[in-house]
């Protein structure tokens, strides 16, 4: 039995129960349990209102939902078979179940928190923008290393928010006046935001022969193979974003409650994983992230030759653990899929961006995952994903935004462009979402 989520309809879907329910009820305000991420950060409990029809407590629900005619795991079904009926069940049980499943089967177990962490801050000022170049020292059981965080802060007042980029291109210099489509630092600061960057290669080099050499080997003996379920490069990049967040929480020139993590392509995969695990991020932006990012795994190549689980693991065997590689030709056996990963960001802001001509990332697969993730957001009364009755494919270069979710399909090919940043800078990403 499965619940259809039609690409032609955005109405709230009721999950069918496996035995007769005598009533349905409306869930009112529920005190949210604290969420503990992989990095040990605990979110402050907040009272959320959840308005959704649900099966009576304790009733079993279907194991799958139907997305675009195919079967996918039901994010609102707990391991004991019963349904998630409110925020307390989601945050108290189901969220942890899904995190554990993603760690074991997709991204790998994260690196632990350092045994010692230091911040060495060097500051320069050009009058309009202050650059803080932070050397983050990391000590693990196998040694000590470091990586750099750059933080550009407009002078004069507290920024409207901070964008933390996981940058696999290493394209950001110390110049506050620099600008590019990919990292328009001066445009961001002139708009009143701060911009922070970490170079993914300083954390785990994007190379099969050396990806362990920076941070991973501080926690695993260099002469031994990694455990099959240990995170590789992508998990390390996500971990690095949380270590950068550790510093950003201490900087008095920015608001620590208004920080978004952003990544493009491979870094977009890491940004989603970082945001799913670490509830300190107020917003999560995944740009053209494709396979093992925003794209549904079970879609295969999506009929457009997109990157599949098998292909991404074959091309980049150092990105993900061996436990994930085992699913290359049997993705239907994965216990999770990417709509559930997006749901782990709830109730915080989620932004998914696709590109019209980016067939390798399967933009329709990203769209469908985003659409299905709204079922989790609905627990918080935030199920409006901005799409209304819009089906695939939506109008290009238009932001479809609800109170907590936003999607856009940019015209053109793979890339992080000025048009994307224009949407992000105008996206109201740093105010707490509330039901409309």
UniProtKB/TrEMBL annotation:
Keywords annotated in UniProt = Hydrolase, Serine esterase, Signal
Every copy of the 4-O-methyl-glucuronoyl methylesterase-like domain together lies at 185-381
What Gene3D superfamilies does the database record attribute to this sequence? alpha/beta hydrolase
A Pfam family for this UniProt protein?
GCE_fung
Q: Which InterPro entries match?
A: AB_hydrolase_fold (IPR029058), FrsA_esterase (IPR050261), GCE-like_dom (IPR054579)
Q: Which family does it belong to?
A: Belongs to the AB hydrolase superfamily.
Q: What is this protein called?
A: Acetylxylan esterase
Which lineage do the record's taxonomy fields give for this organism? Bacteria, Bacillati, Actinomycetota, Actinomycetes, Pseudonocardiales
